[in-house]
Amino acid sequence: MNNPNELTVTIGGLERTLPTVRAGNLGRVPLVEFIGDSEFTNVAAQELVALIPAQTEVLLTVVTNALPLTHELSDRSGLPYVCARKKRRTYMQSPLIQEVPSMTLGVTETLWLDGPHAERLRGRRVAIVQDVIASGGTAQALARLVERAGGTVTGYLAAFRQGEPPMSVTVLQDLPRSL
Amino acid sequence: MNNPNELTVTIGGLERTLPTVRAGNLGRVPLVEFIGDSEFTNVAAQELVALIPAQTEVLLTVVTNALPLTHELSDRSGLPYVCARKKRRTYMQSPLIQEVPSMTLGVTETLWLDGPHAERLRGRRVAIVQDVIASGGTAQALARLVERAGGTVTGYLAAFRQGEPPMSVTVLQDLPRSL
């Protein structure tokens, strides 16, 4: 019998014991933490870089946990990246605003993509990068931002999948939905 | 006469033209963007890593723009890092909550440091890392979090200084306060 308070995963030979947190009706879910763990971030990026869809020209992610991972993927692939925010920043110019259709925990969110950043997606083939894809709601919202910016989505990449998102996702590992 | 809509800076031989944005009564201020620019992030980290105060055991930063930079500093120095958030996350356990005493633009903020992350600062010598230090309000709030967590501050590191913060800060470059 496993301890429901933690879950051990191995990526690229590096083992990490993830804490788990209560998530409403789901019970306990594992909490992936790339922030604060550059070694774990780096091995995940090293495994993911080979899986970036062919023809991809730009990576798109969203703050916050996937940010160090996407930085590393950009560094290793040589592809530039763009990052959507979860609130409006005062410096944004003509941002694209996109509601996230549904969230695992019933919390609605809005994504903001600064106008000059949206320009970097225009006419480009864009791969969407996340740390964890669960319901797929954020991934769908990011894909919609790509389309609205005039780009095309080459695919979805995530370190972990937790559940059954409606789109095809390339992941390193599946996490149990609850423990 | 310079163009007030941009400012060119050079770090480690790499030149970047920063956009400028209107910032209330300040006029136009340069906008440092590490997110989306892994090459610029990496040269800044390479220059900063040699400047980490002696005896430092842990780095502390705050989301969002400084996150890729701090990840790289951690990677290059081998020091772990901890990151404060700007809002409460549902998974946080007994977080430390710290008001930012004042902000350049008159916006008050609250920093949240998850309890298990605060534990990583206890008894440790901690350097505070930011992308830009301006009024120093966020730096002071981070320092207070270190003290409340039972750590001691070894110093303040930032890629850029923009203004005259009240503490001694090690920076790569001073930016003009307005253009």
From TrEMBL, chains A, B:
UniProt keyword annotations, A-Z: Glycosyltransferase, Transferase
Keyword Repressor: no
GO terms of molecular function: glycosyltransferase activity
Name recorded for this polypeptide: Adenine phosphoribosyltransferase
CDD domains, A to Z: PRTases_typeI (cd06223)
Domain Phosphoribosyltransferase: 45-154
Highest taxon of source: Bacteria
Originating organism: Deinococcus indicus
UniProt entry tagged with the keyword GTP-binding: no
